[in-house]
Design brief:
alpha/beta; YbaK protein; eight-stranded mixed sheet
Length: 160
């Protein structure tokens, strides 16, 4: 039996540097499978799998929003909270320039550039979460308290 090789990513290094308690959870990545596939592969509720979405306002100012896997972001509500005209998802190439991660492997930890981070309100109350660890097919399981302590995200209510 061969041991599965887990890549060392900027996210993993940043989580270790922050002293976070986490467990790496590799799974078989499926192109365009999203959180539904990772939740199925790992046998967890999709609500516990947190998406790291890179968005930008009308001026091209990037931000990260952390959202439950089974929910969507109301970009109108997020724009209102931010006091901007609009918020849209970043083009994947631009998101990669800001974060250093390929779409499907984007983590809020260890991004190339420091980005403002927002988190959906209900995530803090979850018993545990799984969030991307900086590579497609690799999540980190942790307490939401650990994530909040390390990233200090702004709490918002924008789920639909």
């Amino acid at each position: 039996m061969t041991k599965e090789r887990i890549p060392v990513t900027s996210a993993i290094l940043a989580m270790k540097q922050s002293g976070l308690a986490f467990i790496l959870r590799p799974y078989r990545y499926e192109e365009h499978g999203g959180t539904r596939v990772s939740a199925q592969e790992l046998g967890v509720d999709e609500h516990l799998v947190i998406k790291t979405l890179v968005m930008e306002d009308e001026r091209g100012v990037p931000l990260i929003i952390l959202m439950n896997g089974d929910r969507q972001v109301s970009t109108k509500a997020l724009a209102r909270i931010l006091g901007v005209k609009s918020v849209t998802p970043c083009d994947p190439r631009i998101a990669e320039k800001h974060t250093g991660y390929r779409v499907g492997g984007t983590s809020p930890f260890g991004t190339k550039k420091p980005l403002r981070i927002f988190i959906e309100q209900g995530i803090a109350a979850l018993p545990r979460i799984l969030i991307n660890a900086g590579s497609r097919g690799l999540l980190a399981e942790m307490s939401p308290t650990e994530l909040i302590r390390a990233l200090k995200p702004v709490t918002v209510k924008v789920a639909i």
